[in-house]
Amino acid sequence: MSATETGAKASQPPASGPDGAAGAPVFSVHGLWKVFGPRADRVPGSSVADLPAEELRRRTGCTAAVRDVSFEVRQGEVFVVMGLSGSGKSTLVRCLTRLIEPTSGTLHIDGEDVLAMDKARLRELRRHRAAMVFQHFGLLPHRTVLDNVAYGLEIQGMGKAERRAKATEMVAKVGLTGLERRRPGQLSGGQQQRVGLARALAADPEVLLFDEPFSALDPLIRRDMQEEVIRLHHDEGRTMVFITHDLSEALRLGDRIALMRDGGIVQLGTPEEIVGSPADDYVRDFVRDVPREQVLTVRNALRAAEDGERDSGPTLAPDATIATAIEAVARSGGPARIMDGSRLLGVVDHQRLLAVVAGLRVKGAPA
Ligand SMILES: Nc1ncnc2c1ncn2[C@@H]1O[C@H](COP(=O)(O)OP(=O)(O)O)[C@@H](O)[C@H]1O
Ligand SMILES: [Mg+2]
Fold first, then answer.
1. 192 touches 246 (CB < 8 A)
2. Probe residue for ligand 1, chosen from 33, 34, 36 as the CB with the greatest number of ligand atoms within 8 Å
3. Best mutation site among 89, 91, 242 for ligand 1 pocket (most ligand atoms within 8 Å of CB)
4. pTM
């Protein structure tokens, strides 16, 4: 997870990713709508477009599953789309590769107009550039693990020896070595999900799209898979769009989170921005129970160092969490110094740390 852009405004491009990635947009989405129902194309931009979902349905028979949504997915980030069931997450992610045809708006991948792609180009997009990992893994029951992983490569026309070698490598990458010859029915749910992940990775797509892939898994296995995704992201810097209705999953995985409600994005920002500065009462309510000290960073508690505080006390990076700082301060009995490399940004003390946990505004904390 990149912490380098913590505190940056959602609309600003990040200076640089953890490994120096430029953060150029992979997907650019502007004013996107998907309306289901009769004469759906008349809804966007019309006088009924802003009606509440229920009234829109009553008046037109239409459902606006995605309403005037704009965002960019930057290279190398984990972009999470979060929202309650029915808020439009699946529709939105399916629109990205036109598995669902958007009603209006614009949509680009690496600057190329997705809405102008012909069938062949779309197939290429879905196979090589933006591969989807589904909740129901879609494994072929009569094929072995290895052949399931190699399946996409087979369709691409890769030779048998080469695709088996590649598949073996992907199976190892998701921790399934030794199970290559099993069939999906002989695997646990978590293992099947890993096969699905390996299959998506085998095509070496630029972006991985996940639609609630872990929601059917037991909590412990789910945790395992989340760590797998974080590890993959870390090792490869692969761009990911990850859909979930689970707030803690979103906070754990997301570099940025788009929170959806009734088809629209109500807030787009880092976990820290969403938890620390909710855009409205809906978001505030949504994040009410989040342990703030585990999401907010010490930047929120900074004050200037006084004489005598500059040269002693524990040191922490600016993206350390409040929880980490509380431990450091409790152990040392004095303030912790916040260092950006060799530069002293300020200190945090117990009083300020407590104020942040309590949700009080801390005066003078630089952004
Ligand atoms: N094919 C469809 N026809 C009509 N309405 C649909 C269709 N697919 C989804 N919807 C509606 O669009 C809204 C968003 O659905 P969806 O994108 O599946 O939400 P989520 O993935 O967040 O649960 C819901 O009200 C759903 O009932
Ligand atoms: Mg869904």
1. no
2. 36
3. 91
4. 0.86
The CATH homologous superfamily for domain 74-104+117-287 is P-loop containing nucleotide triphosphate hydrolases (3.40.50.300)
Residue 87 and residue 46: Cα distance in Å, rounded? 21
* For range 177-194, the mean pLDDT: 92
Which residues approach ligand 1 with their CB closer than 6 A? 36, 63, 65, 83, 85-91
For ligand 1, atom 3, name the residue with the nearest CA. 36
Distance 247 CA to ligand 2 centre (A): 15
Q: How many angstroms separate the Cα of 145 from the Cα of each of 8, 21, 141, 159, 196?
A: 43, 34, 9, 18, 9
Please report the atom of ligand 1 found closest to the CA of residue 87.
22
Q: Kindly indicate whether the domain formed by 292-358 is annotated with CATH number 3.90.1280.20.
A: yes
Closest CA to 17 of 303, 242, 234: 234
- At residue 17 the predicted structure's pLDDT band, cuts being 50, 70 and 90, is very low
